[in-house]
């Protein structure tokens, strides 16, 4: 049985197959590919795009979505094996995953890190527990990576630029008043490198370099594709000649759980905002962001409203890629 937990273990041709069918679904959105299928969508954190695009996508394919928010409208869940469950949790993931598997054909999970101990969060225990105990495929709707966003991002770039091999791709850290998840940044590095781009990570200081696992994964992809992975703290160097600028904010991992200390550093880098002056250094570059985005904090109004901003197109493509993905996982699983 195949899960979609991270794109790391998916080959480029297999991902391209999902993307190619997503292009068909964009042209012919209503197809009965999930007729009589039920899908559980578990949200441990808020969402606008992910929830809406999954629910509507399932409906467009003739399936049925059940949205659950454990701890709110469903019982709080325990994930630790062998624990004495005398706290808040009313049931264990072992039962939850098996019960949902008996009702549903697919389970999708959104569960952000707890932001206290990265060594714990990086194990992605909640998602991996569902994958371990479920007997149906599991989709990651954002934990410590965001693979559905990766698919939508690449679909959008292929629509705009065609072949992505060798394109100069810049992932830039941007300021945000709160320390955010590294998931989209991890994902951006992995997918841009997998699809053969020349990748630059622009961040304020070495503290903002991403987890070594994702840096190494991106480096391996770049080596395989004969491309470079460059880390720089120099804005001009990064933007010059860029063909794609992807922005995201994240908290510095060495300060994980000590966010007041990190804020003192982060507050010095508000000038990492994506603005017209920076975009003018690019090679007529595209700009995108996974959204939600705080205007005039992460990117200016002028950038967000420019023709080169493809963030809305990327958000729309979430719908098409997820439908293609669900079809692939459910119908492969049933056959
Ligand atoms: N990009 C994204 O996943 O958006 P939501 O958090 O609104 O789902």
UniProtKB/TrEMBL annotation:
Source species, domain of life: Bacteria
- Any GO BP annotation: citrulline biosynthetic process
Pathway involvement? Amino-acid biosynthesis; L-arginine biosynthesis
Q: Which residues form the Aspartate/ornithine carbamoyltransferase carbamoyl-P binding domain?
A: 2-159
Give the subcellular location.
Cytoplasm
Residues in Aspartate/ornithine carbamoyltransferase Asp/Orn-binding domain copies: 182-328
Q: Which residues carry this modification: N6-carboxylysine?
A: 298
Q: Detail which positions bind N(2)-acetyl-L-ornithine.
A: 142, 248, 291
A Gene Ontology cellular-component term: cytoplasm
Where along the chain is carbamoyl phosphate bound? 47-50, 75, 110, 146-149, 290-291, 318
The answer to whether the entry has keyword Hydrolase is: no
Q: What does the annotation say about its assembly with partners?
A: Homotrimer.
Protein family:
Belongs to the aspartate/ornithine carbamoyltransferase superfamily. AOTCase family.
Q: What is the protein name for this chain?
A: N-acetylornithine carbamoyltransferase
């Amino acid at each position: 049985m195949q899960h979609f937990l991270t794109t790391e273990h998916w080959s480029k041709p297999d991902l391209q197959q999902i993307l190619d069918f997503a292009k068909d679904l964009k042209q012919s959105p209503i197809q009965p590919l999930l007729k009589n299928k039920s899908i559980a969508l578990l949200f441990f954190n808020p969402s606008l795009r992910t929830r809406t695009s999954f629910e509507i996508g399932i409906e467009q394919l003739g399936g049925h979505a059940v949205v659950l928010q454990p701890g709110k409208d469903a019982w709080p869940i325990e994930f630790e094996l062998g624990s004495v469950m005398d706290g808040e949790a009313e049931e264990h993931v072992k039962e939850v995953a098996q019960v949902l598997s008996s009702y549903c054909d697919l389970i999708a999970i959104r569960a952000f890190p707890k932001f206290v101990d990265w060594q714990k969060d990086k194990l992605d225990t909640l998602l991996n527990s569902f994958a371990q105990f479920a007997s149906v495929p599991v989709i990651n709707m954002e934990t410590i990576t965001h693979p559905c966003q990766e698919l939508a991002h690449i679909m959008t770039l292929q629509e705009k630029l065609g072949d992505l091999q060798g394109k100069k791709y810049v992932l830039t850290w941007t300021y945000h008043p709160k320390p955010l998840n590294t998931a989209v940044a991890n994902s951006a590095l992995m997918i841009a490198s997998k699809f053969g781009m020349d990748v630059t990570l622009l961040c304020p200081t070495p503290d903002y370099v991403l987890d070594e696992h994702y840096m190494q994964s991106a480096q391996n992809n770049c080596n395989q594709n004969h491309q470079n992975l460059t880390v720089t703290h120099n804005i001009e160097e990064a933007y010059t000649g860029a063909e794609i600028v992807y922005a995201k904010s994240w908290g510095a991992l060495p300060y994980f759980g000590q966010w007041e200390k990190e804020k003192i550093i982060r507050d010095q880098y508000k000038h990492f905002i994506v603005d017209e002056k920076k975009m003018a250094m690019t090679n007529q570059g595209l700009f995108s962001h996974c959204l939600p985005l705080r205007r005039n904090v992460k990117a200016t109004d002028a950038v967000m409203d420019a023709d080169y901003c493809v963030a809305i197109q990327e958000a729309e493509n979430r719908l098409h890629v997820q439908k293609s993905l669900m079809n692939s996982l459910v119908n492969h699983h049933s056959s």
